Amino acid sequence: MNASFAASALVADRPDARAIHAAACGGVDPWQVNADLHCHSCMSDGVLTPAEVVRRAHANGVQIHALTDHDELAGVAQAAAEAARCGLAFVAGVEVSTTWAGETIHVVGLRVDPSDAVLLAGLARTRGGRDSRARDIGEDLARAGVPGAYEGALKYVGNPALISRMHFARHLVDIGACASIGDVFKRFLVEGKPGFVAHRWAGLAEAVGWIRAAGGVAVLAHPGRYRLDAGALWQLMTEFREAGGEGLEVITGSHTPDQYETFAAHARDFGFRASRGSDFHAPGESRVDLGCLPPLPDSVVPLWHDWPELALDSVRR
Ligand code: AMP
Ligand code: MN
Ligand code: MN
Ligand code: MN
């Protein structure tokens, strides 16, 4: 039985298709695999080291794991080594910042070759503007009565090439300017509020191209989080698919249960494979911990349904 065929048949109302597919995968049911394919380390705006992230994922029962730092692959080697030590199936990943129709859209790349020259060059260019943007954010916050925020944010930065709004957010909470990270992103750093600096990231199709050049699969991250009306969202998914995007995050720490259903339907409509990831950044800070998400709905095909990692003993257990 061809695994890909069986998974596709599943969405065509065949009650036996899932069992057939599980049989084709050597008894592993891909819908039941605890995959967490989106999270961050201190190489971007998470707080744990890549090895600590992997150990936490393993302890939480994750069976297939990816580290997906923003615009950065520097943590992947350490994460992969730790995953090998723990016996955890691991794939290299990255979350690329893109600009589409004036909005920031995130594209997760999975099973990429972390040494691919095209991807590395694209990511280096994407990271390039971050420091000057951060200085501008600091100046804007100073004008709004919060001096020294650039220096304050730097205290939280684990990778000098990757200063993010999240580092400013931690500083604003630390000095008591805001009660929580969520409070920061309501009152600061977002359009129309102090500390917002417009920025142009990579193009959407360009980022998908880098990921595919590196042998990876491109996934549209947390589609429910963008400030797009229904028509614009449809257009985004259309252009993403045309560019070679193949996956849609359905179950993510950024979605509400209602949105799980909405985006499962969009995955079916567009023929996207469905992905699942906590978007974990830090213990006690992220809404969802590593590996602690509901399973994918039966009605979608898991992104990993035909991945060779399903055959590993650590996944089959
Ligand atoms: P940047 O890539 O510098 O624009 O920073 C974006 C990061 O800020 C995201 O990856 C999240 O970690 C964080 N962030 C943005 N909006 C929110 C929000 N509403 N709540 C929590 N974190 C947010
Ligand atoms: Mn982040
Ligand atoms: Mn994101
Ligand atoms: Mn993320």
Brief overview, please?
The protein is an alpha/beta fold and 317 residues long.
Task: Provide the descriptors you would attach to this structure in a database record.
binds manganese (II) ion, binds adenosine monophosphate, 40% helix, single chain, disordered N terminus, eight-stranded mixed sheet, alpha/beta, DNA polymerase, domain 1, 13 helices, 317 residues
What does this structure look like?
The chain is an alpha/beta fold and 317 residues long. Among the domains are: 30-64, no CATH class; 130-187, DNA polymerase, domain 1. The protein has 13 helices and eight strands. The protein has helices at 3-10, 17-24, 50-59, 76-86, 117-128, 130-143, 149-154, 165-174, 181-187, 204-213, 230-242, 257-270, 313-316; strands spanning 35-36, 64-67, 89-100, 103-110, 202-203, 217-220, 247-252, 273-277. Strands 1, 2, 3, 4, 5, 6, 7 and 8 form an eight-stranded mixed β-sheet that branches. Helix 3 packs parallel to helix 4. Residues 40, 45, 70, 164, 166, 281 line the site of one manganese (II) ion.
